[in-house]
C-alpha cells in the first residue's frame, strides 16, 4: 500500500477533490483518512488446469490486492497500465457521491487508460460498510483484474455482531484455458455465444478435484472455538454460484456493503457482482466428525436449459490448526444441484436489511416519481455485411441483448463527457420507461419476430431527488435466465421479486417497504421480475447493466443521467483535468 509518486497536478486535484468531498460539515474528529495504493496492471503468467497463459493482473497477483478502508474514507489508487491494451477500473458498490469521474466503466464515465499511461482514481466512500470489490471495466479484463475492498466500521464503532477473530476474503471467479480477450474477439466476429469457463475458482484456484491443482488449492486456517468473517465475492464473468463449507453452517450478516438481519444457512447463493458477508464458527471437536479439514465448495447456479453449463465443483480447504490430523479426503458440503431454482429463490428471499437505530433504512415508500418497467432479453441481430456469423438460433443473425428492446451501443466518446460538455450525437436521452410491446414475457415459445431488437445509445435522464422504481422483467426470448442487474452510483432497495409477468395491479401490494435489502446488484429471477427503488440524489452519469459480461457486451445495458440539484452539495464535482482522452 505504498504512497505513489503522483504528478503535481494530480496531487493538487486530489486535495481539492478530498476537501470538496468532505465538505464544510466534517469536524477534525470525524475527518476521513486518505489511503493510497499503487496498481501496476501487467501481463503475468499463471498456470491453472495444467495450462499456462499470460493474463492481465494487478501487482502480479490473481486475485489482486485487497483495499482496506474505514467507512467514509477516501481511497486514492494510482493505476499504471503496463499491459498492452486499454483498461479501466471500477470500484464496485462504491456510490462515489457527486464523483462519477472516477467510477470507471469505459466509454460511460471515462475514456480508457492506454498502454503505458497512468490514471489516478479518487474513491469516495460514504454509507458503505462491509465488503465491496474492484474490477476492470473494459472488455473482459475483469476475468483476472479484480480484488476485494474491505470497509471497516469507523474508528470507535463496532460491527453489529460479535467481532470475528479474523476476516477472510473468499473471491469466487472463473478460469478459461483459452485467452479471454481472444474469445471476446471471436464472439464479436462470429456473433456466437461465449464459451463456458473451464472451472470456477475460489481465491483464484479451482481446487484439487481438477487436474494439476492439488498444490495450488487455497487454504483457510482456523482455530477451534473461534468465529471468522468470510467476505464472499462473486467476481465470475458468467456464473451465479452456490457456496458452502462442509460441517459448518453459515450466518449471513451483510451483502453489497450493507448489513442484514442475520440468518443461518447451509449454503449461500451469490450472483455475479454481489458480495455476502458470512460468519463461520469453528466448532470445538467439530460438528461433522473429528475431522481437521473440510472442503469449502462453489458450484454454478444456472437455469437456462438452452445453454451449456459446467457442473463441476471448485474447492478450497478449511483447515483446523489445532485439531488432530485426519486421514482421507475432506468432506464435501452438500451443494444444491446446478439448476436448483427453488434453493436459490429460498436463499434470496431471506435477505432483509438489519434496520436498527444504528443501521437504519430509508426506504422510499410514500411516492414514486419515475415508474419504469424494463424487460431483459437475449436477442438476435442481422449479421453484419463483413461478419461470418455462426451458432445464433436464426440463420443470418448474431446474438445480442437488450433492455426494453434497446440493445445498448457503446459510444466512441464517454457519455459523461458528452453530457458535461454538451457534445451532441453521442447519446439520446430517450430510453423508454416501458417495453414497446406487451406480450407474454415468460412464454417459452415466442414468435421469431420478437427475437429481434433495436440498437442505440439511449439513456434515462432523471431529476435530482426523484424517487425511481425500476421493475426488471425477465423474458423467455431465447430462454428464461436469471440476470444480476447492477447499478453504478447507488445502492437500491430490492422491494419485491416474483415469477411470471409483473402485475402492476397486484404485485406492488406484496412489496417489502419495511426492511428490504440494500444492494447494488439484484438477482432478477429466471422467468420472473424484481423491483428496486432508489432516491436519485447522486448527480452524475451511472451505468446500469447485467453483470454477466457477455450480456454487457451484447447490449443489456443503459445509463442513468441524474441531473444536478440546486445547492452546491447536490452538484457533480468539476471535471478533473487528468481524465484520459478518447
Ligand atoms: C509466459 O508464458 C508464455 C507462454 O504462454 C511463454 O512464452 C513465456 O516465456 C512465459 N514467460 C515467463 C516469464 O515465464
Ligand atoms: C469455443 O470452444 C470451441 C470448441 O472447443 C472452439 O472451437 C471455439 O473456438 C471456442 N470459441 C471461442 C469464442 O473461444
Ligand atoms: C467442466 O468441468 C470439467 C471437470 O468436471 C472439466 O474437465 C471441463 O473441462 C470443464 N469445462 C467445460 C467447458 O466443460
Ligand atoms: C473451545 O476450545 C478452546 C481451546 O481449546 C477453549 O478455550 C474453549 O473454551 C472451547 N469452547 C467451548 C465452547 O468448548
Ligand atoms: C471424536 O473422537 C472422540 C475421541 O476419539 C470420539 O469419542 C467421538 O465419538 C468422535 N466424534 C465423532 C462425531 O466422530
Ligand atoms: C452434478 O454433479 C453432482 C456432484 O458432482 C452430481 O451429484 C450430479 O448428478 C451432477 N448433475 C448433473 C446434471 O450432471
Ligand atoms: C467489408 O470489407 C471490405 C474489405 O475489407 C471493405 O472494403 C468494405 O467497406 C466492408 N464493408 C462493410 C459494410 O463494412
Ligand atoms: C440455415 O442455413 C443453412 C445453410 O444455408 C441451411 O442448411 C439450414 O437449413 C438453414 N437453417 C434454417 C433453420 O433455416
Ligand atoms: C404466459 O406463458 C406462460 C408459460 O407458457 C403460461 O404459463 C401463462 O399462462 C401465460 N400467461 C398468459 C397471460 O397467457
Ligand atoms: C424490437 O424491435 C425490433 C426492431 O424494430 C422489432 O422487430 C421487434 O419486434 C421488437 N421486439 C419487441 C419485443 O418489442
Ligand atoms: C484505446 O482507446 C483509445 C481512446 O479511446 C481508442 O482510440 C482506441 O481505439 C482504443 N484501442 C482499442 C484497441 O480499442
Ligand atoms: Cu444477463
TrEMBL record:
Pfam families (UniProt xref): Cu-oxidase, Cu-oxidase_2, Cu-oxidase_3
EC number, UniProt record: 1.10.3.2
Cross-referenced PROSITE patterns: MULTICOPPER_OXIDASE1, MULTICOPPER_OXIDASE2
InterPro entries, A to Z: Cu-oxidase-like_N, Cu-oxidase_2nd, Cu-oxidase_C, Cu-oxidase_fam, Cu_oxidase_CS, Cu_oxidase_Cu_BS, Cupredoxin, CuRO_1_LCC
Function of the protein: Lignin degradation and detoxification of lignin-derived products.
NCBIfam families according to UniProt: laccase (TIGR03389)
Protein name from the UniProt record: Laccase
Species this protein is from: Dichanthelium oligosanthes
